[in-house]
Amino acid sequence: MSDFTDLVDLASQKFGATVLYANDDFFASKDNLLKPERAIFIDGKYTDRGKWMDGWESRRRRTPGYDFCLIRLGAPGVLRGVVVDTAFFKGNFPQACSIDACAVAGQPTPEDLMSPDVQWVEVLPKVNLLGDTANKFAIASELRFSHLRLNIYPDGGVARLRVHGEVIADRRFLGPIGLPQEIDLAAIENGGAVVACNDMFFGSRHNLILPGRSVNMGDGWETKRSRKEAPDWCVVRLAARGHITRIEVDTNHFKGNFPESVALEVCNTTSDNIEALATDDNVWTPLVSRTKLQPHTRHFYEEDVLAHAEATHVRVRIFPDGGISRLRLWGLPTADGRALVGLRFLSTLPPDALAHELRTCCGSCAWVSALVAKRPFGSIDALVAASDAAWSIVSEKDWLEAFQSHPRIGESHAKREQSGVAKSWSSAEQARVSDAHAATRAELTSVNDSYEQKFGFIYIVCATGKSVDEMLVLAKSRMNHDRETELRVAAEEQRKITNLRLEKLVRR
Fold it and tell me: Cβ neighbours of residue 443 under 8 Å, at least 6 residues apart?
């Protein structure tokens, strides 16, 4: 297994991460904690509060407890490991630390995050620290988090915090389903990643797909002087499988060390062996033929983009070496690409967040709990199979609970409160009812009433694609059933509705 520090730093200020709050930063500001530069020490430098230190440092506690700070990650993601760096803190480093994480949508304030309603998950149990050391700790979690709480025991100073992991973008970055729109399939905030390169002596490969333009020459991908004929290269894993339509290669700030030329190629693979993939010329198809570059210039390619099949990875080759500051790969995700993004997003949500999403598909708490326990979901078919298995083991009570989360056919309000998403789906599923004549709608109301009086639950039918007349005919024929038979028919209709909604949930 590769060192987790090879992964992107989700807590990088370059990426937009910030320390939102610290309960105490008397000696040194919390804002130092995420600086991209290594910590420094200036002998003899003092402030009016004491020795100047390049990190976050709290005062000496004289009461029980511990100090902490709250961090918003640059983008939500799965954590693979952290580096708690106590550089230059020798007699004033914390004895131990721990880290909790949570997933909160939007831009919560420190007050929001400290609310008892926020559920924090301990991702790093309390561990001892060494002074003046880059303390590395692996994290074993497959959940997606947006915020961290770094706890130090009981007080002291930490120079830098690095949080390495994988970005898990909200599937909504893909845009509304059925409305194709170009997105940057390489962008780190969308879930793209530079997964391998042959050299990054002067500048990290991860800089290549950061937001915005580079701020200096160190804020790009730069290789050493290679002294060889073969080109240097890096491989980008796209945020979603798709077709690339436009490209930007930016050599901003690279003036005497830009590559002479660049070529781009694509492949479509599920292989995890990136090193072998990167050097196998047989798997790559040309995307942009080798073309000359200019110093300190944004190069755009659209007509130059060659026809290609759907792609998951792009190989960038620079001849013979040098630096590129940014790479943009705009394109259109495929349907399967969208589905895989949605599945990974759902599979990595904390349990309560996933349960909230699943309740838009089915109102049975028992079904929701059973499905949460069955993740991860590798495909929509696997998700539907897991749903069917969960539905098959719940009780009659759970079926009735699910029915109550639907409005009656022709109405808009359910007995149990629905989310906004569930309401919109119910409305769309019954869209053809509003077009029916008033007499037909009145007959539907009468049939609904008779059905409920006989069976004790509302008339459930998978309404998608059905006319009001079809639903009326079905309701009247089902009135001939006994309660046990009809309950099972209704449960099967609920299963169909749930599966259709699960696919909407994945792709929306």
Answer: 472
Instruction: Give the whole-angstrom CA distance, residue 7 versus residue 206.
Output: 8
Distance CA 50, CA 83 (A): 26
Query: Residue 216's pLDDT band (boundaries 50, 70, 90)?
Result: very high
Statement to judge: residues 140 and 198 lie in one domain: no
Q: What is the pLDDT of residues 132-163, one digit of tens each?
A: 999 999 999 999 999 999 999 999 999 999 99
User: C-alpha distances in angstroms, 56 versus 53, 150, 303?
Assistant: 8, 11, 51
Letter string b/e over residues 75-113, b meaning 16 or more CB atoms within 10 A of that residue's CB:
bbbbbbbbbbbbbbbeebbbebbbbbbbbbeeebeeeeb
Geometric angle at alpha carbon 240, from 234 and 245, rounded to 5°: 75
Q: Tell me: do 51 and 178 sit in the same domain.
A: no
Three-state SS at 281: helix
**pLDDT at position 2, please?**
56
Distance CA 34, CA 160 (A): 6
Question: What is the distance between the alpha carbons of residues 457 and 407, in angstroms, rounded to a whole number?
Answer: 11
For position 33, which CATH number holds?
2.60.120.260
Q: Given a cut of 70, is residue 470 above it in pLDDT?
A: yes
pLDDT for position 276? 87
CA distance 253 to 297: 8
Q: Are 104 and 118 in contact (CB under 8 A)?
A: yes
| Backbone phi, psi, residue 485, to 5° | -65, -45
Last residue of a domain, one of 134, 166, 198: 166
Boundaries of domain holding 279:
171-333
How would residue 423 be classed by pLDDT, with cut points 50, 70 and 90? confident
Secondary structure (3-state) at 151: strand
DSSP symbol at 470: H
Q: How is residue 1 written in tokens?
A: 């297994």
- Say if residues 301 and 246 touch (Cβ distance below 8 Å): yes
3-state DSSP percent of the chain in helix, strand and coil, to 5: 30, 30, 40
* Claim to verify: residue 257 and residue 152 sit in the same structural domain: no
131 burial type by CB count under 10 A (0-12 exposed, 13-18 middle, 19+ buried): middle
